Amino acid sequence: MEKYIVRVNGKEYEVEVEKVGASSEPQAVEEKPVKPAPAPQSTAPAPQSTANAKGTVLEAGAAGKVFKILKKAGDKVEKGEEAVILEAMKMEIPMVATVSGVVDTVFVNEGQPVEAGDKLLTIA
User: Fold this and answer.
1) Angle 38-34-11 (CA atoms, 0-180°, nearest 5)?
2) If both were cysteines, with which of 26, 77, 86, 109 could 97 make a disulfide (CB 3.0 to 4.6 Å apart)?
3) Separation of alpha carbons 102 and 119, rounded Å
4) Coil vs helix vs strand at 21
5) pLDDT confidence of residue 96
6) Domain made up of 49-123: CATH architecture
7) Measured at the alpha carbon of residue 120, what is the angle toward residues 95 and 74, in degrees to the nearest 5?
């Protein structure tokens, strides 16, 4: 007998299948519901900043969608102030400035999908 896990309409079953010689008669199969493995828990990384020639880059701390851009080019921003809000899994995740300064460039638009580490804006 060989054991397999079969998914039917999103529900998992553990089944045992016995290989039968040349017989063409159907064989009974035992079905047992199987609990799915719990989803891995993860925490979103903190937003990162990288110094470059145009200033400090504020990067997305998690994959999601740009929900709201609170600071535009030319706006003053203080360290710790929210600059962009991401939406991931129906949660709002504020991305805060890691330095004080003036927003130089905004790389994203509201509604745009982003991955963790994508550039959101630079602060000079």
Assistant:
1) 85
2) 77
3) 16
4) coil
5) 94
6) Beta Barrel (2.40)
7) 95
Which amino acid belongs to residue 34? V
pLDDT given at position 1: 75
Cα 75 from Cα 106, distance rounded (Å): 11
Residue 87 has which token pair? 């939406």
Q: Identity (one letter) of the amino acid at 50? A: T
What is the secondary structure of 102-116 as a DSSP string? EEEEE---TT-EE-T
Let me know if 52 is exposed, middle or buried by CB neighbors in 10 A (0-12, 13-18, 19+). Answer: exposed
Q: Which of 105, 109, 113 is nearest to 65 (CA)?
A: 113
- The tally of CA atoms less than 13 A away on the side-chain side of residue 51 is 3
CA 102 distance to own-chain centroid: 29
Start-end of CATH 2.40.50.100 domains in the chain: 49-123
